[in-house]
Amino acid sequence: MSSLSLAARDSSTMLRRNLLHARRYPSLTLNLLLTPVMLLLLFVYVFGDVMSAGIGGGRADRSEYLAYLVPGILLLTVGGTTIGSAVSVASDMTEGIIARFRTMAIHRGSILVGHVVGSVLQCVASVALVGAVAVAIGFRATDATAVEWLLALGLLTLVSLALTWIAVGMGLASPNAEAASNNALPLMILPLLSSAFVPVDAMPGWFQPIAEHQPFTPAIETLRGLLLGTGIGSDGWAAVGWCLGLTVLGYLWSRSLFDRDPR
Predict the structure, then answer these.
(1) Whole-number mean pLDDT of the chain?
(2) Helix H or strand E encompassing 31
């Protein structure tokens, strides 16, 4: 077999291993899913009228705020799910299984590829579940065309890939699973500091640059434009640029940490 075929075979094996772990120990994924679902329900049913009145110039419309909120919640879901990747990688590194894999005749890169692909698949599944909750409480994207739906799915997958590589690097750099979970918390905190819940223009002037010049805001605005049929402008290119940059950075960081002597 060629080296490419061996790498694909070993990566497939590692992917199955990680998916089996996720199926046998679903508590981590479910706990991470609870946060976006609870925030969605809280902001729609408790703060929905007040938030929509503030955004809409005094006209309270909970359904309108739901449409505004869902894209941000979906990106928050991706960020939360990737925390599980950091914990999983850190567990593998500290429990000795990685050291065992290093002694076996398998493609070294397949270990990380299995984690990354498995995490991206979990992110897509988590987004689908949270999206189903949003639809159940009234979210509709009737203005989105089939092409826009495909682009939205592509964007979510690209964000998942970028954040997963960053999370893998965090897991490799952490001394244990608990530290990995804490180190990866910014992946859930950054969406809270973006345009997920209120427009950037409604924030204090000193805080607007922080919210605007970070990876989640252009991704959220692009997803919002695709699903709601509003304009995207330069946010689409900014979102893709952030995703590609973070993917390359996360890959290089993870690769350098993985190639060092095992602890």
Answers:
(1) 86
(2) helix 27-45
